[in-house]
Amino acid sequence: FQSVSHVMMLLTGWIVCLAPLGVAFLIAGEILHMKSVLEELEKLGWYLFVVCLGISVQGGIILPLLYSIITRSLPFKFIGKMGPALATAFGTASSSATLPVTINSLENGNKINPVIARFVLPIGATINMDGTA
Q: CA-CA distance, 126 to 24, in Å (whole number)?
């Protein structure tokens, strides 16, 4: 059983090492089949613009508006106290890695009940594992 495990780990290591090369060749093959690379880059640019616009509207308008409606207060003070968690999230691009800092910011900075913060945040970080980092 251990020899099969060792062989599988060795094979997995090879696949992980060769994956970037395989992806590069897949992309190169698609680029060679394109009629106009600039046209495809323009489409990609529009896609990037729309995604950034959507994220900006969601984070800059919709979520603060919902916060204001539900709590009857402005969200800027709350967001300001979440600064360390936001900086860590931006730097690591990982909800799970940010979890301790986020819990600390909520409990100490925003005075959220520790029972609520420690129950809700791990669930939210787990549900949010959708590969969009």
A: 31
Q: What is the pLDDT of residues 58-82, one digit of tens each?
A: 989 999 999 999 999 899 898 899 9
Per-residue CA distances from 113 to 34, 66, 70, 101 (Å)? 56, 21, 18, 15
98 class by beta-carbon count within 10 Å (0-12 exposed, 13-18 middle, 19+ buried): buried
Residue bearing tokens 């919709």: 62
Alpha-carbon distance values, 76 to 61, 68, 80, 89 (Å): 12, 10, 6, 18
Classify residue 128 by its DSSP letter.
Answer: T
Q: Supply φ then ψ for residue 111, to 5 degrees.
A: 55, 40
Do 103 and 125 touch, CB atoms closer than 8 A? no
